[in-house]
Design brief:
The structure holds two protein chains of two kinds. By secondary structure, chain A is mostly beta strands. Chain A is 0% helix and 58% strand. Chain B has no helices and eleven strands. Classes of the chains: A mainly beta, B mainly beta.
């Protein structure tokens, strides 16, 4: 089955700095890569996603890059703010159908200090 | 995105009892998923709930322990049966609106077993 590794497990940055979280996956047939943010007491919230036919996607301060050859993708957060503090999960899905299931990484706890 | 409501949001239960968790979506969705998130851990898929058919369980999860209902396209229940302290977790409902659509999560049910 699919194996997703996520690094680092914790990340502390100063407000205004950039943060980068990286995930690697094992199944070369995987073609959908979402990122979720989970705040304390809440469920995971989809913040950005990318499909395998795209190398990069950006949404304001958040961007995701994908290297299919190396089988890794990364979340980039620029100009971090204290409200970015949360646990971030990457996920991978194989197939073009919503019926395929997601495999999640173990999560990264991001702490942004004022 | 779909609005997903879970009930109860939290509960404390006695060992050996059962609890049914409800998941209501504000729009019709094809796929509903149930996940478990143990304290400080990632998300583990319990089962996929399809309307009009039996749920599909992942390895390590069985119907006798986690019976699921999916009576229509907007509602599902997960029952945690004969609970033990090891069942203390967050249980999350998730929906996949359709093919090539992102997957969204409810805020979860925080379950503690005494």
């Amino acid at each position: 089955g699919e194996n997703v590794e996520q690094h680092p497990s914790t990340l502390s940055v100063q407000e205004g700095d950039s943060a980068v979280i990286k995930c690697t996956y094992s199944d070369s047939a995987s073609n959908y890569f979402p990122w979720y943010k989970q705040e304390l007491g809440k469920g995971p919230q989809l913040i950005i996603d990318i499909r395998s036919n795209v190398g990069e996607k950006k949404d304001q301060r958040i961007a995701v890059t994908l290297n299919k050859t190396a089988k890794h993708f990364s979340l980039h957060i620029t100009e971090t703010q204290p409200e970015d503090s949360a646990v971030y999960f990457c996920a991978v899905r194989r197939g073009n159908s919503g019926y395929s299931t997601l495999t999640f990484g173990k999560g990264t706890m991001l702490l942004v200090s004022p | 995105s779909a609005v997903i409501s879970q009930k109860p949001s939290r509960d404390i239960c006695q060992r050996g009892t059962s609890l049914t968790i409800q998941c209501q979506v504000d729009s019709q969705v094809t796929m509903m998923f149930w996940y478990r998130q143990q304290p400080g851990q990632s998300l583990t898929l319990i089962a996929t709930a399809n309307q009009g058919s039996e749920a599909t369980y992942e390895s390590g999860f069985v119907i006798d322990k986690f019976p699921i209902s999916r009576p229509n396209l907007t509602f599902s229940t997960l029952t945690v049966s004969n609970m033990s302290p090891e069942d203390s977790s967050i249980y999350l409902c998730s929906v996949g609106p359709g093919q090539r659509q992102p997957q969204h999560f409810g805020d979860g049910t925080r379950l503690s077993i005494l």
